[in-house]
């Protein structure tokens, strides 16, 4: 859209809107078609990420027991698993679907209420609007 953007994290409605956290528009009857499309695409991207993490944890089940290692080692352990996972994926090393059976999805506690509006960054709305325009220019899908 002619404006350089930095990387952003995807968040759900409970996160404050920041220029580095993209979150969906609040669901209500006043959303435009473009805003609904943005929410849909954000949700699709989020599900891809969840699936990637599920596969990562299934292939490298040590990630399910990270409480066994020191906090200093944890970033290196996660990084090593990510690199090895990507090497396996790049070389078509088969993913065994049975691995998924031993990875029970753990629901971490999440806030139930949206972040207060005071925590939101007004500049972030410009970032979300640019992304919204970009998604619209890409067409349906």
UniProtKB/TrEMBL annotation:
Keywords: Hydrolase, Metal-binding, Nuclease, Nucleus. The keyword Hydrolase applies. Its main location: nucleus. Residues 5-86 form the DDE Tnp4 domain. Residues 99-121 are annotated as: Disordered. It holds the Pfam family DDE_Tnp_4. The keyword Acetylation does not apply. It is found in: Nucleus. Its cofactor is a divalent metal cation. GO terms for cellular component: nucleus. One of its GO terms (molecular function) is metal ion binding. Belongs to the HARBI1 family. PANTHER family: PROTEIN ALP1-LIKE-RELATED, PTHR22930. This is ALP1 protein. It comes from Pomatorhinus ruficollis (streak-breasted scimitar babbler). The lineage of its organism: Eukaryota, Metazoa, Chordata, Craniata, Vertebrata.
């Amino acid at each position: 859209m002619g404006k350089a953007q930095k990387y952003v994290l995807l968040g759900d409605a409970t996160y404050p809107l920041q220029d580095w956290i993209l979150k969906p528009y609040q669901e209500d009857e006043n959303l435009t078609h473009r805003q609904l499309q943005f929410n849909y695409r954000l949700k699709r991207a989020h599900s891809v990420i969840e699936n990637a993490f599920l596969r990562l944890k299934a292939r490298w089940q040590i990630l399910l027991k990270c409480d066994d290692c020191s906090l200093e080692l944890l970033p290196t352990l996660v990084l090593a698993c990510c690199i090895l996972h990507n090497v396996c994926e790049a070389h078509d090393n088969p993913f065994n679907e049975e691995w998924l059976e031993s990875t029970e999805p753990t629901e971490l506690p999440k806030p139930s209420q949206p972040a207060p509006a005071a925590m939101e960054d007004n500049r972030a709305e410009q970032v979300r609007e640019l992304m919204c325009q970009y998604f619209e220019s890409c067409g349906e899908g």
